[in-house]
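[job 0412] stage=fold_complex status=start
inputs:
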Amino acid sequence: MSHVVSPIRETLVGGGRSYHDVTQDICKQVEGEPTKEWKIAFSVSCVIFAYGAYCLGYTWWQGIGVWGLNKTVGWAWDITNFVWWVGIGHAGTLISAVLLLFRQKWRTSINRAAEAMTIFAVLCAASFILAHMGRPWLAHWALPLPNTFGSIWVNFNSPLVWDVFAISTYLSVSLVFWYLGLIPDLATIRDRAQTKASKFWYGLFSVGWTGSAKTWARYEYVSLILAGISTPLVLSVHTIVSMDFATSVIPGWHTTIFPPYFVAGAIFSGFAMVQTLLLITRVAFKLEDYITMEHIEMMNIIITVTGSIVGIAYLTEFFIAWYSGVEYESYCFINRAFGPYWWAYWMMMTCNVISPQLFWFKSIRTNILISFILSVVVNVGMWFERFVIIVSSLHRDYIPSSWAMFSPTMYDIGDYIFSFGLFFTLFFLFAKFLPVINMAEVKAVMKGVSSNYPYKKKSEGGKESVTH
Amino acid sequence: MAGHSHFSPANVEEFYEFTPEARKRVITAMIIGAVLLGIGVFFLGSGEHEAAHAVAGHAAEHGGEHLSGGAVSHHETSWNPLNRLWVNLWMNGVFFSGIAVIGMFFVAVQYLAKAGWSSVVKRIPEAFPKFLYFTFPVLLLLFVFKGDVIFHWMHHGITDPASEHYDKIIAGKKGYLNFTFFLVRLVAIFTVWIVLWNMMRKKSIEEDLNGGTQNFFDMVRIGTGFVVAMGISSSLSAWDWVMSIDTHWFSTMFGWYMFSSWHVTGLATITLTVLFLKDKGYMQYVSDSHLHDLGKFMFAFSIFWTYVWFAQFLLIYYANMPEETIYFLERWEGHNKVYKAVEILNVFMNFFFPFLIMMTRDAKRTPIFLKICCFFVIVGHYLDFYQMIMPGTVGPHGGFGLVEFGSVILFASAFVYVVSTELTKASLVAKNHPFLEESLHHDI
Amino acid sequence: MNTTEKYLVGVYDDEDEVLHAVTEVKGKGVKIEEVYTPFPIHGLDTAIGHPRTRIPIAAFLFGLTGLTCAQFLINYTMVFDWPMIIGGKDFFALPDWIPVTFEGTVLFTAFGMVFTFFVSNSLWPGKTPKTFDLRSTDDKFIMTINMGTNKKSEAEIEEILKASGAIEVNVKQF
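[job 0412] stage=fold_complex status=done
writing structure:
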């Protein structure tokens, strides 16, 4: 890639960093003793994890009867959590894949953490699939395995089976993508390692990486192709999740816009979660020179764009429900907005559609505290979106005598807490033991975007000779 | 990295010349289109009249009547062969409005995303929206004078409970589908597009004269405004101009589906124009890397169109609800199967061909492959619009004849004429674009 | 092994310089074995003269395999082994199978390609790398010249490397 960079571009690596400084700044976290703040945060998440694990264990032991489901609302809080986590798990691969294909250089500082977050979020989502199975020790029967009970196979015409394939493919391919990106950085840590243990562990996982030109050339091809296939993969995952609902004939669920609308919502919530985590990491690890205001602003712009797309989808659904002239469809949407779950609906509307519009003001999208608050607000809204779609479409079915409301039990809530414990425990482990920023990628784009390498001017003939 | 030194700021301006010879060729094409159209209309008026009736009767026997769900079933007895002309003009008007407006959309997105690579080609799409000046009156006049030929909901008495043509479902949509409101939306959509484009174009030309970065930031703002406007107007135009033809039918995806079809056609037209100008000796600074990126865009958005098409199809197929599946059934086996071939071609030309042709890196950098792909994409999406619009309007009277060929040649050559004229009005390269240097050094 | 390989190692501290140096050193008739860098440099492999990688072809073939396997499995289970009418559709319900077929294709492509990548670069967990300079994963760009494959003398090559911008020239033996 050329280093010619327009002078109107913002600096992406501040503080006059050199390549060596980058190595130093990022490896510092990995090599040093854990800080007190990290220990406290990690302990807290372990406690949350332990409490959540108790609730999940109880759910498994007793069965999913401990949830607050009833005869009308047969799917509620926990499937909401599943969709919510899968949605969040979209941003990482999106940042690394789509932004790589579009050559957005600002992605380099954030893609590592975003990909890690993706994997953890998908694991959380997977925990809800297992929880829904009731007997998670029989989970392998979701796969098409030959068996001794006759020719019993999974039903490939079922969206739930598509989901099994989509989630497992997405999880494993994301893991591969993430690991591949880690290898050069692991080699950097290996080459700097002082202790025997880190020499061994980072040596083991860096697979003998040397960074030869031949390897890099292949590596770049592999990354590009992985990005190329991961992009439709990301789309397919939430598309298939949306089809869990949309292939049915339930008013409010069966609508053709669901696939791209779910994907837009997933990107929206995923970017918001990345924003939340990066703003914390930025402060905790003092990475202000890598995660700059430009990064925060770009993230906020994407949040606004995707939030608006989601808003258009809400309005489209509402409009077509009326336009269709189907009375059940129309009722479903009126019930969402003005029925007993009106508060969930307006919570969703406020958090997802209205609040991101605040980012139209530059002063707001460059304000770190407000960005942080809004990024959390967005994910609250996205949780409510799924809740609204799922519960409000189910709670009043065709027979008014069976109309019901849903109220969660402590195990609904406890299982949700479990996923937070799992997520943050894994994220803190990642932040301590692995480089949170992709050093190789940051170094590769530094010329031109770093305050220290403002596109060096060379005087010798034959070398780069463009001036500004 | 090195090797672009031949392009020094001294020879930075480059003007396209629309030579009298080229002008003559385009006008000849226009005349040929008009003549074919004329002959086609003549034959529609005489020979096909009875044949069409025979076909219609046949289709009705085999369920064509209830499958159509559109205008024809209600008008079987009063079918006017000239309707096919009006419908063709409407279809081409919608299709080419899309290509024109995507030019603006492309530029707007590049500004919004602060994309550097595309600044060498941005003057090409920037010229496209000029064609809206041509399609706007075409669509406006067709709607005002021939709207009832195109739109089922405009048929006389259809929302009047006292009339024998009364249709309860359509009457329910009266609040949205009525003459005045539709007209307001049509005018508003085109006005917004044209006004924002004019603002953008003015800033763009000012930048050539004055330099500086103020115009750039203004264009980012205008572009952002346009993207917001497009977010709404793309869905509105799809519902109004195309989806309301099959008035009973509805699909929430339709707005994005039609937009994705427009979008990829626009990208193919941009690529084809750049390649054409390069062949003519212009724009030699457009390198393999730029072509590669244009090719990638076409490749990616062909897949995106397929995704949207397939998602819509799968959900309707899976849920199997009669009021939805009729749309595909009508096209697949209704109207005596006139549209079946187009349905198959639609997926092949718009997915398999671009997907297989544009898969390798070398293909995206080779002009001939790009041209083949552009050809497939443009013709394929013409067919996509054909199958969206024809079954609900002309139904069993549809087909591929001189009217179709004549009208598309007429529109295409008018498009070439208008865009070529617009291209001469500014340098082919935006010489003061802040990202021009980046773009000239673009190397992937 | 009893044979020792002797290398001259040129150390550079700028990516544009090393890229330029590769052309210059090669132009003077010195055979470069490899260049080690902390991050990918566009065009470096072609400058050294490495052949273009065929990994995309491998990826395509893996994808094709994935597609075939997925279609085979679904057809076998849903049409031949135990056909059932589901949702009133044909046994051969192709639209319903597109999602799983797609996932299978992606899965095979990704894993096959990455596996090929590891094998073709002979990378495996726990492998001890042949390191010429530990700083090549930090901030230095390392050019290695295998003395066994070059006819020029050590002093000559050192001169050429220095002239091309190397900040250090070291000798390394394996």
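[job 0412] summary: The mean pLDDT of chain C is 91.
[job 0412] exit 0
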